[in-house]
């Protein structure tokens, strides 16, 4: 029986890895099939170091803003959560997702839980709520893009309208489900205990504790002033993302080639973000395909320029995330060691 479970787990992992790699290869082929990589790499070599550094500065500020917003979401759980730990967890999340798609959110909860000595499942609950807020903000930002674009954006990007309808439907049903879950938590708790007790009383007790901590995370934003702060910082975050895109345009002097401005960056940012939703490592392939598509189809840049932009911005983000993850874990472990606390790594964070 145990052997069968191991084999099934290995098969599931293999299928998941194969599907991820297949998606990545397919999107990379779609992205670069019309691109002269030599010309794109030449364009990248001509970018100024100052432009690259400015891009990275805005990049890190935008993710520090995510840490500030998350702090407001956690105030009802722990008031003195370290901003350094919050920022570190955010960067670790993205760093892990650059290697294993979607695994980063789990590690984000695990590391912060360990570093701050709070329930990891409660932290995970706040991340679920944060993701709902993110999807909602980006969905509305996409609608703003539709209104800002001088032509018919739905006609230019045929899959956009369907994607937005699916996105808003997902947001609506998820919010309704969470409201029902929070308001009827005792009923859900009884069902969980009833069914899990049939398997094991120990399992029922663990699931009951897990349910309590998740509910605490789901309902973490208890005060109206905290909710307002979360929404305000959400708008600041998306503004910084658009600014980051705009700085990217200036890295390649794209404003000298076409009539582009901050609105152009906003539209590009909202549409290209759909590429990150596809489960490839760090958006590899999917981001490139959509970024090149938008720059060539909407703003009429050449494929070589579009590819150069996609390659460099993705590389900078990928490099920053992975490097930050390793450095953050290293320096935090040094701090913990000096305080006589155990070091944490990608395996130890799973242990109680």
UniProtKB/TrEMBL annotation:
Keywords: Cell membrane, Membrane, Transmembrane, Transmembrane helix. This is Lysylphosphatidylglycerol synthase transmembrane domain-containing protein. It comes from Stygiobacter electus. GO terms for cellular component: plasma membrane. Coiled coil: none annotated. Its main location: membrane. Pfam families: LPG_synthase_TM (PF03706). It is found in: Cell membrane. It comes from the Bacteria. The keyword Transmembrane helix applies. The keyword Glycoprotein does not apply. The chain crosses the membrane at residues 14-32, 44-65, 85-103, 123-144, 164-182, 227-248, 260-278, 308-332. It is a multi-pass membrane protein.
């Amino acid at each position: 029986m145990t052997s069968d479970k191991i084999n099934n787990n290995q098969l599931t992992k293999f299928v998941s890895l194969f599907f991820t790699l297949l998606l990545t290869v397919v999107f990379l082929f779609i992205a670069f099939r019309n691109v002269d990589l030599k010309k794109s790499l030449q364009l990248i070599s001509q970018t100024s170091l100052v432009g690259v550094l400015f891009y990275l500065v805005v990049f890190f500020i935008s993710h520090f803003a995510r840490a500030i917003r998350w702090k407001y979401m956690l105030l009802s759980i722990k008031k003195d959560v370290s901003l350094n730990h919050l920022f570190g967890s955010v960067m670790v999340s993205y760093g892990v997702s650059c290697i294993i798609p979607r695994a980063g959110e789990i590690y984000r909860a695990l590391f912060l839980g360990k570093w701050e000595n709070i329930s990891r499942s409660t932290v995970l609950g706040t991340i679920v709520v944060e993701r709902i807020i993110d999807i909602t903000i980006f969905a509305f930002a996409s609608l703003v893009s539709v209104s800002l674009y001088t032509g018919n954006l739905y006609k230019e990007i045929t899959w956009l309208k369907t994607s937005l309808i699916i996105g808003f439907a997902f947001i609506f049903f998820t919010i309704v489900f969470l409201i029902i879950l929070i308001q009827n938590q005792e009923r859900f708790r009884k069902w969980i205990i009833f069914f899990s007790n049939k398997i094991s009383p120990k399992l029922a007790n663990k699931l009951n504790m897990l349910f309590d901590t998740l509910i605490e995370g789901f309902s973490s934003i208890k005060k109206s002033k905290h909710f307002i702060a979360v929404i305000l910082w959400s708008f600041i975050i998306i503004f910084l993302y658009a600014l980051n895109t705009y700085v990217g345009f200036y890295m390649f002097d794209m404003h000298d080639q076409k009539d582009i401005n901050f609105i152009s960056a906003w539209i590009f940012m909202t549409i290209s973000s759909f590429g990150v939703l596809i489960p490839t490592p760090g958006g590899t392939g999917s981001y490139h395909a959509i970024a090149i598509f938008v720059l060539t189809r909407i703003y009429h840049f050449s494929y070589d320029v579009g590819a150069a932009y996609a390659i460099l911005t993705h590389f900078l983000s990928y490099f920053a995330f992975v490097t930050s993850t390793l450095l953050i874990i290293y320096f935090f472990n040094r701090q913990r060691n000096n305080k006589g606390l155990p070091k944490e790594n990608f395996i130890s964070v799973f242990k109680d």
